[in-house]
Amino acid sequence: MNQEQIKKIIPHRDPFLLIDEILELTPGERVVARKTLKEDEFWFQGHFPGMPVQPGVLTVEMLAQAGAVCVLSLEQFQGHVAFFAGIDKARFRQQIKPGDTVLLEMEMLKLRSSMGVGKATATVNGKRAVTAELTFAIGPKAAGEE
Predict the structure, then answer these.
(1) Contacts of residue 38, Cβ cutoff 8 Å, sequence gap at least 6
(2) CA dihedral in degrees (94, 96, 102, 107; nearest 10)?
(3) Which residues contact 61 (CB under 8 A, 6 or more apart)?
(4) To 5 degrees, how large is the angle CA 129–CA 33–CA 84?
(5) CA-to-CA distance for 69 and 31, rounded, in angstroms?
(6) Chain segment 74-96, per-residue pLDDT in tens
(7) Which of 80, 105, 99, 93 is nearest to 26 (CA)?
(8) b/e code 87-115 from CB counts within 10 Å (16+ = b)
(9) Distance CA 33, CA 10 (A)
(10) CA 10/CA 69 separation, integer angstroms
(11) How far apart, in whole angstroms, are the C-alpha atoms of residue 77 and residue 93?
(12) Gap between the Cα atoms of 51 and 128, Å rounded
């Protein structure tokens, strides 16, 4: 699934659509996405000059966007928005730098009518970079959705 297809599922747009493609998807259960970090990503200018490092919170956002694709792909949630409701057990294990390709995996642990929890893992070159449990709330349909 490319970015144009992703945009049909989640409301994020540039400069805040932070996933390039979906590699695997089982709606409501599991997703694997990919993001290749370019040297000109806007956040590298200030984080940190001379030593660019991916902000951990943006990696968590990438994981959340992948998870949103997973959940909002279900028929009953199509057109809705998913919001953060909690971030637990977050660990930042290694730096992510410009040029790295980040694999973003989310496995749903719980999914109810308006809430869910997913186990999230971001890896670079097969090594865990970020892990967390993300809790989300499923909100109303996005503006412009019927």
Answers:
(1) 98, 99
(2) 40
(3) 18
(4) 75
(5) 8
(6) 999 999 999 999 999 999 999 99
(7) 105
(8) beebebeeebeeeeebbbbbebeebeeee
(9) 14
(10) 6
(11) 33
(12) 21
Residue with tokens 């997703």: 31
Residue with tokens 């540039």: 14
CB of 71 within 8 A of CB of 136? Answer: yes
% of the chain residues with pLDDT over 70: 98
- Sign of the torsion angle spanned by Cα atoms 71, 122, 119, 32: positive
Distance CA 82, CA 71 (A): 8
Please, where are the H alpha helices in the chain?
3-7, 56-72
Calpha distance 146→136 (Å, rounded): 22
Which residues are annotated as catalytic?
A: 47
Round to whole Å and give the CA distance between 27 and 84.
19
The letter for the amino acid at 105 is E
d(CA 63, CA 114): 19
pLDDT in tens, 126-146: 999 999 999 999 998 877 665
